[in-house]
Design a protein that fits this description.
- A hairpin with a 2-residue loop joins strand 12 and strand 13.
- Helix 6 runs parallel beside helix 7, helix 8 crosses helix 9 and helix 23 runs antiparallel to helix 24.
- The strands form five sheets. Strands 1, 2, 3, 4, 5, 6, 7, 8 and 9 form a nine-stranded mixed β-sheet that branches. This protein has an eight-stranded mixed β-sheet with strand order 16-15-11-10-17-20-24-25, sandwiched between helices. A three-stranded antiparallel β-sheet has the order 12-13-14, with helices on one face.
- About 40% of the residues lie in helices and about 15% in strands.
- It is globular, with a radius of gyration of 28 Å.
- By secondary structure, the protein is of the alpha/beta class.
């Protein structure tokens, strides 16, 4: 019998820091969860202690250190200041991040991350140098390799009949993988500290995320340390984003599996998936307008455009808020089960999740249960929900309030009695969503807080290795994962795609890191291993760079995240390129078909010059109209009818802030080059009077009464953009 130990609970973070140092010494390698789960008060206390005491060596190893936006230019700072104060009220900063930004970390403190917020440390030397390149599934291993001896995490807490249990909530992803590794080190004599900081505002997630206090070495629990969760604001979905999401939604197979990432492209996919289910007439009309079936036959081959009857199962390293919108809409409803035998029978449609007498017959035919029933058969049937919990088994007979009956499945009278007195209604233990971590807008946390017990049982936050990786040390898990992940669509974003089908998602050719590989490589590779699974990489066809429009489909690039031999499906706002198993010539042609038409001739010429496309090849006319203007025209009517809005899932900005934000974005694009800057200034200098409708916007920016030439020019630039 396992011996239960009493975990010390601290009311004060400083006392907890004392205990950590006493246990592991003054060399601390602190492992922190990715994103939301960092225990801010404890982390800040450890960091402050290292600041004050140079004898302490502190290395922080983590990913995605969240920070409130501050803005790079004076105009951006004026815009973001009031918004941040309102939106992030009560959310503590991570002190090490603030000092890191200012290059003011003390020499005895170092921060190493394996994933950045996109572009956040592009020009930061120490972070570029300290970056750890690792697949998300290997992060726990690499944390151990870094010498982690303290793991700290924010946790949820609940009391049931006076008993406290804790939840890893938003971040069981690495913690569940790390724990056995750390205990193994501890058994070998290495001092280890697993520390939890309770925050009652953390949604309490059940299933694999719920653990007992003895899984921690220390806990910090004081209501004064509770604080609002860091909420990522909803970002606008552009028309191009919406079309990318629309095309991706046509590839989802009813009764299939979905993985999707964060950001506007992920939100656009969720929106179009909801549209397909809830307003299929509008959805089908857009299908016809875009000539999707004619131009992109892969939709008919592997996808679907009708409402979802059987629904989807979510299996995603990040549980974005979109999954909850799908759940509320009745789309995320396909349940998967932990027993591979049960899951296989469901996949083969020999049984359904609704319990009936035929299910017993099938289970007997497959030798999963015996006839007459044995005690272990009854226990199994009860664990699956096939039998009610109150059914007893004694002396070879089934016992209920209705009496006693032999468990003979060959006897018609016994079967009738069992049907009337023993059968449950629905299989138990079904999961509609496996997630590794979550981070999102305030609505996400609110929806999770409002979950019923029944809702919670259908969502399982768990190990990233379970979600991201098909192969593991447990062959049962491997078979179970394959059985659960039917018709998988692993849908992620990338930045650039080469004509031979390699993808650039996290770095630049000069070695600078934009973000990190995260789980993308694993999901792409898994799509090539699972039957009927597909990898889908979404990206915008163009970008602005140096004030010029550039293509995101290029002949070649000096760095790749996903190699060309794993090429599969790519989507831009202009369509779908299905390149799996195709020749280099056909891959290049398919990608040029979804490129912006301003670059198609150049890309064709480059491919022909390299001898990869025949000189006499001519791109069909139907793919020759890939322009932003065409997108605007296509979505224009739908937008007037209320479809494809920029903020379908709510907006954290006020109407005035949206106007200002749009103007600042336009101004930034126009002043991205010296020529553009000069043109913008000349236009701004022509501003004489300020229109009445602009005055409230200037007041919001605290720019009503500029002082000095610089402030006056900034005001004119903003007014010029707002009125232009």
């Amino acid at each position: 019998m396992k011996e239960t130990r009493t975990t010390p609970v601290f009311q004060d973070v400083e006392a907890c820091v004392d205990a950590i140092i006493e246990k592991v010494g003054k060399t601390i390698v602190l492992g922190l969860p990715l994103g939301l789960g960092k225990p801010a008060h404890l982390v800040n206390a450890i960091y402050r202690r290292a600041q004050k005491n140079p004898d302490i060596s502190l290395r922080i190893v983590t990913a995605l250190s969240l920070e409130k936006p501050v803005g790079k230019s004076p105009l951006e700072r004026k815009f973001l200041g009031p918004f941040v104060e309102r939106h992030f009220k009560g959310v503590p900063d991570l002190d090490y991040v603030i000092d890191l930004r200012k290059n003011k970390l003390p020499p005895n403190v170092e921060v190493r991350e394996f994933f950045f917020k996109a572009g956040s440390y592009l020009h930061h030397e120490s972070q570029q140098q300290n970056y750890i390149s690792s697949n998300y599934t290997h992060a726990a291993r690499d944390l151990i390799g870094q010498g982690v001896n303290v793991v700290a995490q924010m946790v949820g807490k609940r009391l049931v009949e006076g008993h406290a249990s804790y939840s890893l909530s938003c971040n069981p992803d690495l913690s569940l993988d790390l724990e056995p590794m750390l205990h193994e080190l501890q058994a070998s004599g290495m001092p280890i500290a697993l520390v939890g900081e309770v925050n009652r505002q953390m949604p309490f997630m059940h299933n694999d995320a719920e653990i007992e206090s003895d899984r921690f070495d220390m806990l910090v629990d004081n209501e004064k340390y509770d604080y609002p969760l860091f909420a990522a604001p909803n970002m606008a979905i552009t028309p191009a984003d919406h079309l990318i999401g629309f095309y991706a939604s046509t590839l989802l197979k009813d009764n299939g599996t979905l993985q999707v990432g964060i950001g506007s492209l992920g939100s656009a996919l969720i929106y179009s998936t909801l549209l397909r289910h809830q307003n299929n007439g509008e959805y089908q009309a857009l299908m016809q307008q875009l000539k999707v079936r004619e131009k992109f036959p892969v939709v008919e081959k592997i996808g679907g455009v009708d409402p979802f009857k059987e629904g989807l199962y979510g299996c995603s390293e990040m549980m974005v808020d979109g999954f909850l919108h799908l759940y509320k809409a009745g789309i995320l409803k396909k349940e998967v089960f932990s027993d591979v035998r049960l899951q296989t029978l469901l996949n083969d449609k020999r049984i359904t999740t609704e319990v009936n007498l035929d299910m017993l017959k099938v289970l007997a035919e497959e030798d999963i249960i015996q006839s007459p029933l044995r005690a272990k058969d009854v226990a199994l049937l009860q664990s699956w929900g096939v039998f009610r919990a109150e059914v007893e088994y004694k002396g070879g007979a089934l016992i209920t309030d209705a009496g006693t009956m032999a468990g003979d499945l060959q006897n018609a009278d016994a079967l009738t009695w069992i049907e009337q007195n023993c059968l449950g209604i629905h299989l138990k233990g079904g999961i509609v969503m496996h997630g590794g971590f979550f981070l999102g807008p305030k609505e996400l946390y609110q929806m999770l807080d409002e979950f019923s017990e029944e809702d919670h049982q259908k969502f399982c936050m768990t190990s990233v290795n379970y979600i991201n990786h098909l192969y593991d040390h447990f062959l049962g898990n491997q078979a179970k994962k394959a059985a659960q992940r039917q018709e998988s669509r692993f849908i992620n974003s990338t930045m650039l795609v080469t004509l031979n089908g390699a993808a650039v998602s996290d770095g630049l050719a000069n070695g600078q890191v934009i973000s990190g590989v995260g789980g993308q490589y694993n999901f792409v590779a898994m799509a090539h291993e699972l039957p009927n699974a597909r990898s889908v990489l979404k990206f915008k066809a163009t970008r602005m760079s140096g004030g010029k429009v550039q293509s995101n489909i290029v002949l070649s690039y000096g760095y790749t995240t996903i190699p060309r031999h794993l090429r599969d499906i790519f989507i831009t706002e202009y369509g779908i390129a299905d390149v799996r198993g195709k020749s280099d010539k056909d891959v290049m042609i398919e990608l040029i078909k979804i490129a912006d038409s301003r670059f198609q001739d150049e890309l064709l010429a480059q491919a022909k010059s390299a001898g990869k496309i025949p000189e006499n090849y001519v791109l069909p006319e139907m793919y020759r109209h890939n322009t932003p203007e065409a997108i605007g025209s296509i979505l224009g009517l739908a937008a007037k009818s209320g479809f494809f809005p920029p903020f379908p899932f709510g907006c954290d900005f006020t109407p005035d802030e949206l106007k200002i934000g749009k103007a600042l974005k336009g101004l930034k694009a126009k002043t991205g080059s010296r020529k553009g800057m000069i043109k913008a200034i000349i236009k701004a200098l022509k501003v004489r009077d300020i229109p009445t409708e602009v005055l409230p916007l200037l007041k919001r920016m605290d720019m009503e009464h500029p002082v000095g030439l610089k402030e006056k020019l900034e005001q004119k630039l903003l007014v010029s953009e707002l009125t232009g």
